[in-house]
Design brief:
Elements lengths: L10 H7 L7 H9 L2 H11 L2 H19 L3 H13 L4 H16 L1 H27 L13 E7 L2 E5 L4 E5 L5 E2 L4 H7 L12 E5 L15 H22 L11 H24 L5 H16 L6 E2 L3 E2 L29 H27 L16
Antiparallel strand pairs: 1-2, 1-5, 2-3, 4-5, 6-7
Length: 380
C-alpha cells in the first residue's frame, strides 16, 4: 500500500517524468513467452522448487513408514527440510554471484548445473539407503493385526491369555487398541511392570536388520536428507541468479514463468513417483534419476553476448534464443533514462519559477495611470 514500485520510484511518476517508458503488456507477453532460455529455466526450476514442494509433502510420512519414528518425531525430521530455507536459497544466490564475478554468466550456468546434479545424486542416496531392507506395511486388517506387550527384553507377542514368544519387530506402532487386546491385558503375567502397555502392530513383514525400522539407518538418512535439502534450495537461488538476465524487457513474465514451473514440477513429481502403492524409497531413486537427466538441459542455455556452458559468446552465429524481438527503441523497467527525466524536471522547475517571478513582480508594482499618445498620422 505504501511501498514504491521500483527502487527508482513509482511507475506513474517515472513515466510522467520520462525516465521510464510506458509498458506495453502485449509486447512483454510475446517477448517473454518466445524466449527459449526462459522455457529451459522453467523446466529446470521444476526440478528444484517443484521437488522441494513434493518432498515437503511426503517427508513426514516417509520417516514414519520407513524408519518407525512416531508421528511427532517424523514431523520434526521433516521440518529440517524446510528450515534449510533460512540460509540455503540465499547461499545459492551468493554462489551464483561469486561464479559470475570469477567466470561471468557461464559461471552462473555451470554452478546451477553442478548443484542441481548434486541434488539429484543425494535424492538417489535417500532411496538407496533403505532399498535393500524390508518395508513395514501400514494397512492392517483383521488378519494382519497382532498384539504385543512392551517389556524390558523387547516385545512379547500374545494371541490369547498366554505369552507365546519374544520377538524383534518390524513395523510401526499404531495408536489403536482393540477390545480383544484390551480384554487380554489382565491375563498377562502380573510380573511385567508395563504389562498394560499394549500396542497394535501392523503386519510385521520381517525382523532384525532386514527391516528398515531396525536397520540403524535413521541417522544416516537424516544427514543425507538435510544435505539434499541444502542442494535443492541452493539450486533455486542459483536459478534465480540467471533469470534476470534472460530477457530484461520481459523480466516480469520470465520470472513468473519460471516460478510457475516450480509449482507444475511439484504436481508432476508427486503424481509420477509418490502416488499409488510403490515404495517411497524407490520413488526417491526414480525422482533422483529424473532430476539428473532434466538438469542436462542446462547445456542448451545460450546467451549470444555471454555464451553457454560449452561454447563461448558468438560461437553460435545466427542463433538467438529470443525468437520475437521487442520493437526498436522499446525499453523495459530495467532501462531508465534519467537524463531525460532530469531535463524534464529542470524545464518544469524553470517554468514554475518564471510564473512565480512574473506573478510576484506584478503584485508588487504600484498601480499606474499611463496616457498613451499615438504617433503623428496614426489614428486610434
Amino acid at each position: 500500500m505504501t511501498g514504491r514500485d521500483l527502487p527508482d520510484g513509482n511507475f506513474k511518476e517515472l513515466e510522467t517524468s520520462g525516465a521510464k517508458q510506458k509498458s506495453d503488456s502485449s509486447v512483454v507477453a510475446k517477448v517473454g513467452a518466445s524466449n527459449i532460455n526462459a522455457w529451459i529455466l522453467t523446466i529446470i526450476y521444476a526440478m528444484s522448487f517443484g521437488v522441494e514442494l513434493t518432498v515437503t509433502n511426503v517427508a513426514s510420512q516417509y520417516f514414519h513408514d520407513y524408519h518407525g519414528t512416531t508421528p511427532a518425531i517424523s514431523g520434526v525430521i521433516a521440518a529440517t527440510f524446510g528450515l534449510m530455507n533460512l540460509f540455503a536459497r540465499s547461499l545459492g544466490g551468493l554462489t551464483s554471484d561469486a561464479a559470475n564475478k570469477r567466470f561471468g554468466m557461464r559461471g552462473r550456468l555451470w554452478a546451477l548445473w553442478i548443484f542441481q546434479t548434486i541434488e539429484g545424486v543425494l535424492c538417489l542416496l535417500i532411496g538407496i539407503i533403505t532399498l535393500s531392507s524390508t518395508a513395514p506395511s501400514l494397512a492392517p486388517d483383521a488378519a494382519q493385526t497382532t498384539g504385543y506387550v512392551s517389556t524390558s527384553d523387547g516385545w512379547m507377542e500374545f494371541t490369547g491369555p498366554n505369552i507365546t514368544a519374544t520377538i524383534e519387530l518390524c513395523g510401526v506402532a499404531q495408536v489403536q487398541i482393540t477390545d480383544v487386546m484390551r480384554s487380554n491385558v489382565d491375563a498377562i503375567h502380573s510380573d511385567l511392570e508395563d504389562a498394560k502397555k499394549v500396542i497394535i502392530m501392523s503386519d510385521p513383514l520381517g525382523a532384525g536388520a532386514d527391516c528398515i525400522s531396525h536397520s540403524g539407518t535413521l541417522g544416516t538418512s537424516i544427514l543425507v536428507f538435510i544435505l539434499f535439502s541444502v542442494a535443492v534450495q541452493m539450486a533455486e537461488g542459483l536459478c534465480y541468479g540467471i533469470v534476470p538476465s534472460i530477457s530484461k524487457p520481459a523480466l516480469g513474465v520470465v520470472s513468473g514463468m519460471v516460478g510457475a514451473g516450480g509449482n507444475a514440477g511439484s504436481l508432476l513429481t508427486n503424481a509420477a513417483f509418490f502416488l499409488g502403492g510403490a515404495r517411497k524409497d524407490q520413488a526417491f531413486i526414480n525422482m533422483g534419476i529424473m532430476i539428473i537427466v532434466v538438469t542436462g538441459l542446462m547445456f542448451g542455455v545460450y546467451f549470444p553476448e555471454h555464451g553457454g556452458m560449452i561454447v563461448p559468446k558468438g560461437a553460435l552465429r545466427g542463433y538467438d534464443p529470443q525468437i520475437i524481438k521487442p520493437p526498436a527503441g522499446y525499453r523495459g523497467a530495467d532501462s531508465m533514462d534519467f537524463a531525460n527525466a532530469e531535463k524534464g524536471k529542470q524545464l518544469e522547475a524553470k517554468s514554475s519559477s518564471s510564473s512565480t517571478t512574473v506573478s510576484a513582480s506584478s503584485s508588487s508594482l504600484p498601480p499606474m495611470n499611463v496616457k498613451l499618445t499615438p504617433p503623428t498620422g496614426v489614428s486610434v
